[in-house]
Amino acid sequence: MTSWPKSYPFALLIALMALTPIGVLFSLASDNAQLFDSRNLQVLGNTLALMCLTVAGSVLIGVPLAFFTAYVNIPLRRLFLIAFAAPLALPSYLGAFTLYYAFGRGGEIENLTGITTPSLDGLWGASLVMSLYTYPFVMLTTRAALLSLDASLVNAARTLGQTLFMSLWRIVLPRVINSIAAGALLAALYALSDFGTPAIMGFDTFTRVIFVEYNAFGLSQAAMLSLQLMLIVVLVLFMESRIGGDKERPGKHLTLWLPRWVSGGFFVSFLPIVLLSIVLPLGIFTLWLIREGTGGFDFTFAWNSAYASMLAAIAAVVLAVPVAHAAIAGKAGRLMERITYFGFGVPGIVMGTALVYLGLQIPVLYQTLALLVLAYVLRFLPLAVGTIRSTAENQDAGLVKAARVLGASPREAFMRITLPLTMRGMVAGAALVFLEAMRELPATLMLGPTGFETLATYLWRVYEAGYFGRAAVPGLLLVLLSGLGLVLMLSGECRAEFSVNEDSRR
Amino acid sequence: MLNVSDLSVDYGSTRVVDKLNLVLENSEILMLVGPTGCGKTTILQALAGLIPISEGKIDLGSWVATPSKSIPPEKRNVGMVFQDFALFPHMTVEQNVCFRLKDTALADHWLTLLGLNEFRNAKPARLSGGQKQRVALARTLAHEPAFVLLDEPLSNLDASLKDSLRWEIREALKTAGVPAIWVTHDQDEALSVGDRVGILNKGVLEQLDTPERCFSEPASRFVAGFLGDACFIPATVLGANLQTPIGTAPGKSIGHTTADVDVLIRPDDLIATLDADAANATVLWSRYEGESRLCAATLDTGELLKVRVSHEVSVSPDARIHLRLNSEHPLAYYAKEK
Fold this sequence. Notes:
The complex is a heterodimer.
Chain A: H1 7-29, H2 38-71, H3 77-85, H4 92-102, H5 108-113, H6 122-148, H7 151-159, H8 164-193, H9 196-200, H10 206-215, H11 219-242, H12 260-292, H13 299-329, H14 331-345, H15 348-361, H16 369-393, H17 397-405, H18 410-439, H19 442-447, H20 455-465, H21 472-505
Helix pairs in contact in A: 1-11, 1-13, 1-14, 1-15, 2-6, 2-8, 4-6, 4-12, 6-8, 7-8, 8-11, 10-11, 11-15, 12-21, 13-14, 13-16, 13-18, 14-16, 15-16, 16-18, 17-18, 18-21, 20-21
Chain B: E1 2-11, E2 14-24, E3 29-33, H1 40-48, E4 55-59, E5 64-65, E6 78-81, H2 93-97, H3 105-113, H4 129-142, E7 147-151, H5 159-176, E8 180-184, H6 187-193, E9 196-201, E10 204-209, H7 211-216, H8 221-227, E11 231-238, E12 241-244, E13 247-253, E14 260-265, E15 270-273, E16 281-288, E17 292-299, E18 304-310, E19 320-325, E20 331-335
Parallel strand pairs in B: 3-8, 3-9, 6-7, 7-8, 13-20
Antiparallel strand pairs in B: 1-2, 1-4, 4-5, 9-10, 11-12, 11-14, 12-13, 14-20, 15-19, 16-17, 16-19, 17-18
């Protein structure tokens, strides 16, 4: 008779908790909402149009960049890779915010240079901003696949008389198409669930309309819209799960020595992307800081952000440990872990709607910080589970056995061996949750107790009131936090790359 | 005719190929052989235009590549056969062979000649190693290259397959009448297949000549040792002959020499007899090789020699034997090492 691992009951409970938002939404929507009307249809069309344009844009930018960073021999390759991956770390609403005020009649670009640029809003504005901040998904997945391919196939095609471009087109592209699709679906998910960008660009997608309904006390209508949005999200997630990986025997790495003017030209043609997505937002915020100073900004906003995010980080790690343990222990545990991943796919605005209603039903929770922390935990728990599970998995199982043979009880072995060794994963997981929660906008807007202003919500109020100059300090702080997140992400990648080098040297 | 002059390739600050000069005649097979890391694969990649060159010139007549003027691989009319076959996994055998062909007659010709007709519609993953290499060869030859580069084409295959496939590839290249540079680290392959053999050491071409000359008159001690069992004993030059402690033989000077030299002795230059009375050497070890037995023996004067004896003769370590020099052909001799 096999006994269940001790972590199973906890993990099951947490998995059930992760499912509550959807249950709540169903009971709420069944109240009295209209299932579908013509306005609905238009919102659906808008959302899908934004999604498709974002996917197209991110593929058009991401795929050539992936080829460039993977194959072309350029000096300072690593630095360029970081620069091109950096937009991933920045929440797109910061970009939307600054680009919205930079372009157009009376925008900052006109103020500075006198040149009138076309204004950036609506479908095209939102799509451009989304593409600028989601192409790294496509670039990174494609690049990883490109790096694993065997170079001699391209060399073979070229020696058979095929031009370089056609060799890449005929021989390489068909074999990385799955990875491109995987990255494109991530971009699609982002486009579906992001609230800030379409809201700032004034484009009526599901997320924006849900927020409008919520503000107009149409909570059940918001729930119905949320469910419709979730349906699309689930469809995209389903498509993603059906995509197989590109499985090929890894081979020698292809390096192309292009003439300097070719790689230089290529590089210059991609410079505007970094300029628009990184340099421009930083520049605009700095400009506002110089012009307007820190007026109106209160450091309790930053403290509030940090406090709520810290609580969320601690709670997420505490909950992630049993889930990660269960995931390693067996198949049933693996399923429970998968269920907690569900929260990551739930758009923040949907999570907000569900938890607002939960708060209304359970008066103890209503307008408390606990509800906001719960929203953070449900959304970002998978980040903590992922890092903790991977550090625990990489651990030598023999260590615990050795401790047991030396006379330690299971409890002592866990406390003295497993826990210290997974500590790094827990800290990294907590940091990831913390950074994500700091930058979260829609759920914070809906669930923050009255008067509880954070960096992200303050930025939103500033936008609503039109005092955009006051966004300088919260904007720069959020960029700084994103920079920290990028460093954390890359240090992980550095370690991975380092260990690969070590292996190949053997 | 491919003319390579003073070709050098650098990886960063490391020189991998140093001042390579060679001329590839029409329809000859030139073997490049050397130990791992001697730069032989790098030479092929430079000739194919896959990596930039730092010095020198590659001239095919229809094009000339220099460090400042690189010709892309697709403009070089080169064929390349890769160690790992490099078959396109998402295409069938036929699609692979017909890759850039408008007229598929040549593809049919080579598929038939190399016995691949029944695999036409198979994907490469289904083929065995030998079949894959035949497909790779058919693909290369069907595209009618001006010259073919083979990068260790047999090193990923079973030993039993190597011997037969080696000849099959040679026959196919000769049938096509196309010159080839074939890189290998296997000296037997190099000596048996090639019209000429080039021996590389640390990026430098030490000798380029017929297999017979390379084997019997190696340009350096390194070449002598790389191409087969090589031992050296001291000798004195007497006119055209060499005087050694184990007999005399005709000699041939390699490089500048004086009266006192070291002579290269291969196992087949010696005769061993189990004559205990006249014995002049002690057996160190003996290795059974099926058709014969290879023995190492120390001369009473201290030098180590290797010799082959009949497989029927059993020699055990510490046995006393008699060694005598027996060579009709001139033995290569070198200046003494300082």
